[in-house]
Amino acid sequence: MTELSLIRNFSIVAHIDHGKSTLADRLIQLTGTVAERDMKTQMLDSMDIERERGITIKANTVRINYPAKDGRTYVLNLIDTPGHVDFAYEVSRSMRAVEGSLLVVDATQGVEAQTLANVYQAIDADHEIVPVLNKIDLPASEPDRVKAQIEDVIGIDASEAVSISAKTGVGIPDVLEAIVNRLPAPTGDRDAPLKAMLVDSWYDSYLGVVVMIRVMDGVVRKGDQVKMMQTGATYRLDRLAVLTPAMKDIPELGPGEIGVFTASIKQVRDTRVGDTITTEKKGAEKALPGFKPAQPVVFCGLFPVDANDFEPLRDAIEKLALNDASFSYEMETSAALGFGFRCGFLGLLHLEVIRDRLEREYDLDLITTAPSVVFKLHMRDGEVIDLHNPADMPDPSIIDHITEPRIKATIMVPDEYLGDVLKLCQDRRGIQMDLTYAGSRAMAVYDLPLAEVVFDFYDRLKSVTKGYASFDYQISEYREDHLVKMSILVNDEPVDALSMMVHRDRAESRGRAMVEKLKELIPRHMFKIPIQAAIGSRVIARETLSAMRKDVTAKCYGGDATRKKKLLEKQKAGKKKMRQFGKVEIPQTAFIQALKMDS
Fold it and tell me: Is 547 exposed, middle or buried (CB count within 10 Å of its CB: 0-12, 13-18, 19+)?
């Protein structure tokens, strides 16, 4: 049983690639938590895709025992959090389980957009923050400039910032001492009824659902009957453990401690993140303030390339949804693509990660339709409907107006690229809210429509700034705008997988680009094919794919011109009939290419 004054709970927050996971590796290594022979880089990134992309996706926890210089042994609970904007919900819920944060800033890059976003989450959670300057072994590092920048931009005192190199191990003992001396110990009452917060849960094929908790008050022991306060379900604890990254069984968990339990729970859906766990008898009266569930913002359809893969796809999606509470899905059908699922994600990286995991872990070939966001349709009778898929849009005459989600985007960019960034935001219907400078870098705050951002905004931003810009956003509100549904017709048949919501002023250029692209992608048939973009019944762009034709006049030589004409007329009539009954085959690759359209 650990005394409260000897426990320190903290998370590591930073922008992408500033060295969070490497610092976690060094802390684990220096304290001997994992034997040298078992050590590997990015110890806490367990998924293949995390290791391959070099990013953290799931927040992971480890318990470290540290004999400090004052002669006492402290228990440190570390949570390594993701840095990418799509996984900000992982960060926010990890923050609630701990009392302090190490803010890691790259001494060569300085403060970035995501550094700001994550620090503000830590400040919101009333954390004590210790700034850590990483990568001081690099020749380009400027610790003094970055310290001044932390004070200017974030507004926290950086005079005692710890300078380290997580790669070489310089300064790591100072970090451990700073954690012990500068971060607060948790508070909690051992004799009060049990109150534990459910921080995370995941599915293990051997143990069932593994639930991670942070005990606030009271004590939980192996064999206890516990109750989930949100769902009212009760379970008996089979196993109680702490993660050192491997599970190590313990008899009880007291206030301030973080651990995991298993209780023969079958589905992750039964364990809601943010729920309060208490004992069945003499439990707590009032639940802890939970946190709001993650809201998916980007939707797209996932369809199997081979229709026979539908069942395996369903199984795979169900298994992934077990581990990822922020991923939602429902079944849908499409005339062009057959049966599939409409899935909700937190952003495009989240979408890519899920798609990669489905293709890699479950060996599936998938088609992803164009990502779209949720529009709200305000009907004339006062009803408000959420529109997830543009193909489901009702008759425009019964709609009063349409609102779309807007975001507040913070972009940090070196001065020389500022013009390009402002132009990009302007092109995407952005409204400038603020423009300030932190040293030689500009910080632009824009109000942008989410629909324009999910498509390829991040890629465009990186390319116009040669990779130097950093970008972070949060959803601000829904606002009315002049939005219309653009349909694509091939041979007068609408192709539902290609319909999209566009702004009225942009519709013609978007439609023109789409039909030109499709003209290149669809193979020629024996009859001519019109490809049109339309809003309602009005065609706004058209291209015609000419027919393949046989030279029917080859056998005529000399003689009267009417003979040639007669043969050509006959051919024309045949082509017309063919077009009436002919079906246009659009290959799968054409869909994928058309949806990757670069506006």
Answer: middle
Q: Is the pLDDT of residue 261 over 70?
A: yes
Give the Cα separation of 497 and 512 in Å (integer).
17
Domain 376-480: which CATH class?
alpha beta
Which of these, 61, 133, 53, 148, lies nearest to 97 by C-alpha position? 61
Residue 29, CB half-sphere, CA atoms under 13 Å: how many? 20
What is the residue extent of each domain of the chain?
4-182, 195-279, 298-369, 376-480, 484-595
pTM: 0.67
In DSSP terms, 105 is beta-bridged to: 133
The domain 298-369: what is its CATH number? 3.30.70.870
Q: Using 50, 70 and 90 to split pLDDT, how confident is the model at 599?
A: very low
Q: What is the CATH number of domain 195-279?
A: 2.40.30.10
Closest CA relative to residue 8, chosen from 159, 149, 182: 182
Least confidently predicted of 61-70, 283-292, 330-339, 532-541: 283-292
* Residue whose C-alpha is closest to residue 296's, from 380, 354, 337, 238: 354
Kindly tell me the burial class for residue 253, based on how many C-beta atoms sit within 10 Å of its own C-beta (0-12, 13-18, 19 or more): buried
pLDDT at residue number 231 = 75
Alpha helices in 227-266 (DSSP H): none
The yes-or-no answer to whether 298-369 and 376-480 have a common fold is yes
- The CATH class given to the 484-595 domain equals alpha beta
| Fold (topology level) of 4-182 | Rossmann fold (3.40.50)
pLDDT band at 591; cut points 50, 70, 90: low
Residue 106's H or E segment, with its range, is: strand 100-106
Question: Which among 23-27, 136-140, 454-458, 571-575 has the top mean pLDDT?
Answer: 136-140
